[in-house]
Fold this sequence. Notes:
The protein is of the alpha+beta class. The chain has five helices and twelve strands.
Amino acid sequence: MPENTLGEIFQSASDRLRADFLSSGGFVHRGEKGGARERLLVDFISKYLPGHVQAFHSGEVITVDGRVSSQCDILICDRSTPPLLDMESYRIVPSECVYGVIEVKSKLDSKELIDACEKLRRVKQLPKSAFYPQMFQTQYRMYGREYTYLPTAGIIFAFDGIDMAKLGDQLAEWCRDKPLDERPDSVWVMGKGYFTWVDESPHPQVAVQESSNFALMELPEVGEVLFPFTLYLSMHFAAARMDPLKLIDYASQTSIGSMRTTWSVGSTPDENAP
């Protein structure tokens, strides 16, 4: 098999995705353009995500204590997720089941970058607590500490954008005073490159680590972000697991019935009695 076959496949996929993106601007109502472009990306990444996770277009994330996120463009969730509301184009999903959120932009400029960072920051702050206790728990080392669940990843994807160096300056300024676990995990701009966190190696990391700096990764002369993007998604979510969801915790503020009458039927009958 020629060495460049895989790259050519993703370049072809990129060409189709970009063509569909441009077409969506011509025949989709202005108010629906964003949704159409988000669905394009969902359809694409769904082919390459690990089998135990799935991508949903458009939804909100809710927590046990009643907090609700703003509308999220794309949710990456465990395949066992029981949506609390499941409509054709909208879902409400328990925070525990969410592995990642992708904010999608038609063109990424400084204003859109900050908007996406703030949205991701708020959803990454949502707690995850409604799990049944397990004898053995998976440990995740991310953001400079240990977790017993996979923290929600925050990813930005854009079909186009302004100069990447300017975006890098803006991203660095925004991240400077933010906790590690509230920073975006990666930023991708088709046709231009992507930002990812690196260590001293410097090898790209799937999440912000304690001593991380982020770097602008330029594309080869013939290449597109979709190839490294799909590899990144596979790396980040391949080991994603969640303990069984304790859905009853979400009903703690809502009555599911009250005891009215009880009947005593005695102990178990003696089978040897005459």
